[in-house]
Amino acid sequence: MSAAKAVHGLPRGPLTEKKVRKQADRIFRFLFPRSYPGEVFLCGGAFKPALHPKLRTNDIDLWVRDRKERNRLLRFLLERGATLDRDFHPFCIRLLLDGCAVEITYHNIKKGTIKELVHGFDIAGCAIGARYSCRRLREVYISPGAHETIATGEVLLEEGYLRTLVNERLPTVLRGIDRMQSFADETGLRVRERDMETLWKIYLHNYTVEEQRKCVDVYLETTVGFKQGCNKELLQRATTA
């Protein structure tokens, strides 16, 4: 597992279940060389190689159903040889395993499905997932938005994210804007401008000053503080508008 490098646009070939299964199998074999008895959901950026063979996995994001399963998975990976890098509560626990970052999220899926999980993601190109249970890969899911990303060559937002953003007034708007641009830079795609402007419109015109401040705080805490990346132009526009 190594850091992803930018490519000159993704191929227009279809994003197939076979490609996703191949990548999921590769990662689960890396995580669980001798299998794992529990249930784990693998979603997001770990599937970038399924979008383009020149892209690489730079981190692995895992979800579980509850705290008991999280503790079980954490113990297993530590015994497997992982080291604790940071407990970033309430977002994730970050481990390092053979030089690869593995993040176990604090979000509990409970009785949810892969489909329900990934439709809450911001970037449609990351709305891909796989479920591992009882020592093998059980299912994979590709959202319509992920298929559309390949078909159009555009970085777009997952529709479910936009609905949740508006209905629940989530403080993740600036992080979503940053992630759209970062995904475009990495994959060589172009940003869907109307989706980008929708996020800016929500932030500038729909959110109160207090809600905007919370968006800035979340961006500084997560993207800047944890991911160690900062879009200065984004912050300037967000704080001077």
Can you walk me through this structure?
It is a single chain. This protein has helices at 17-31, 48-51, 67-80, 114-118, 144-152, 159-168, 173-187, 193-206, 209-226, 232-240, and strands at 39-43, 59-64, 83-88, 92-97, 100-108, 128-133, 136-142, 154-155, 190-191. By secondary structure, it is of the alpha+beta class. The strands form 2 sheets. A 7-stranded mixed sheet has the order 3-4-5-2-1-6-7. The chain is built from 10 helices and 9 strands.
| Helical segment count | 10
> Shape from CA axes?
globular
Radius of gyration, in Å, reads: 18 Å
Helical content (DSSP H or I, runs of 4+): 40-55%
> How do the SSEs run, as a string of H and E?
HEHEHEEEHEEHEHHEHHH
Largest sheet: 7 strands, mixed
Mean pLDDT: 92
What's the short version?
With 241 residues, the chain is of the alpha+beta class. The protein contains ten helices and nine strands.
Search tags:
single chain, 241 residues, alpha+beta, 7-stranded mixed sheet, 10 helices, globular
In terms of topology, how is this protein built?
Blueprint lengths: L16 H15 L7 E5 L4 H4 L7 E6 L2 H14 L2 E6 L3 E6 L2 E9 L5 H5 L9 E6 L2 E7 L1 H9 L1 E2 L3 H10 L4 H15 L2 E2 L1 H14 L2 H18 L5 H9 L1
Parallel strand pairs: 2-5, 8-9
Antiparallel strand pairs: 1-2, 1-6, 3-4, 4-5, 6-7
